[in-house]
Amino acid sequence: MKDITKIINAASFGIPTLTQPIAGYKEFNGFYIPIKDMDSLVKEAEKLKDVNYYNQWSDRVFNEAEKYHISKIAELYKRLL
Q1: Centroid of chain to Cα 60
Q2: How far is CA 76 from CA 16, 37, 39, 45, 69, in A?
Q3: I want to staple 10 with a disulfide (CB 3.0 to 4.6 A). Which of 15, 16, 46, 70 is the partner?
Q4: How many CB atoms within 10 Å of residue 57?
Q5: pLDDT tens figures, 20-78
Q6: Contact present, 7 and 25 (Cβ < 8 Å)
Q7: Which burial class, exposed, middle or buried, applies to 38 when counting CB atoms under 10 A from its CB (0-12, 13-18, 19+)?
Q8: Predicted pLDDT of residue 68
């Protein structure tokens, strides 16, 4: 997953994403799991099994994805013109 739109798309459905520390991903307010730390990756994946924890992250990433909705991007472009 090297395209930020994949994370935004998942977030728009409320799906939390575990990612590698690749430029572009860090700016998106979702999960950030360093690839060299497999123990942390497993731990976070296990934590997602908890419904309350999952729902917290689901709400968080969904709200973050709203910033990238096409209507908001279109409004930004209108202001630039």
Answers
A1: 9
A2: 26, 38, 41, 36, 11
A3: 15
A4: 20
A5: 777 777 777 565 666 668 888 898 889 999 999 999 999 988 998 898 899 999 999 99
A6: yes
A7: exposed
A8: 86
Sign (positive or negative) of CA dihedral 71, 74, 76, 81: negative
Residue for token digits 């798309």? 9
Residue 34 CA to residue 19 CA, distance in Å, equals 8
Q: Which two tokens stand for residue 70?
A: 């096409």
- In the chain, the DSSP E strands lie at none
> d(Cα 13, Cα 49) in Å, to the nearest integer?
18
Tokens of 75: 């409004």
Q: How far apart are the first and last CA of the chain?
A: 33
Structure tokens at 30: 């979702």
Residue-level pLDDT at 49: 95
